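ping. complex inputs:
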Amino acid sequence: ETGVTQSPTHLIKTRGQQVTLRCSSQSGHNTVSWYQQALGQGPQFIFQYYREEENGRGNFPPRFSGLQFPNYSSELNVNALELDDSALYLCASSLAGSSLYEQYFGPGTRLTVT
Amino acid sequence: AQSVSQHNHHVILSEAASLELGCNYSYGGTVNLFWYVQYPGQHLQLLLKYFSGDPLVKGIKGFEAEFIKSKFSFNLRKPSVQWSDTAEYFCAVSTLNNAGNMLTFGGGTRLMVKP
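pong. complex structure:
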């Protein structure tokens, strides 16, 4: 069973640029959620994708957007990067319809905005 | 909106000491509750979860948590910690939709266990 994978591991971008982060869900999972974890804080929910559509969103501006592909992998796109976007971005996958609804997390992508 | 508070940001214990980490949440509806652990250099992992039924939940590695609805609490306990329990612990509550849980996390508690 393949776990959740994320790429890249680390990324450095300049303020104003755009970034795309990628996530491959665990085998058999069809739902992907994205979280932002700033240094010293708990993860904050960004949004969730199910059946290739956004299925819920946290308190993040529209410049945070995403995609889910037919193979259930997902991308997180952030436009017009700001210094406060520096964080660890976590992807979690789960199986919709499972009574457990347990989310499995990937290792994260650490984004630094300078 | 739901929120989660973890009262202790840093905890230092000696091996064999007992552990209790506090977690309080605010949400008016039915809650699902979780404790996650992040060992140094590793992914977030699920320690235990509460959906319904017995409010005393047992998880992996000897951890347990008790859901007290009247106190909006879900405290994590372990009778005797080990050096390998050094990690950051996160309490989370969820809103359940048709696809799955959307988690709201607390700020985390960093536990250091001295050998």
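The interface with chain B takes residues 3-4, 31, 33, 35, 40-45, 48, 50-51, 55-56, 58, 90, 92, 94-96, 98, 100-108 of chain A (CB under 8 Å).
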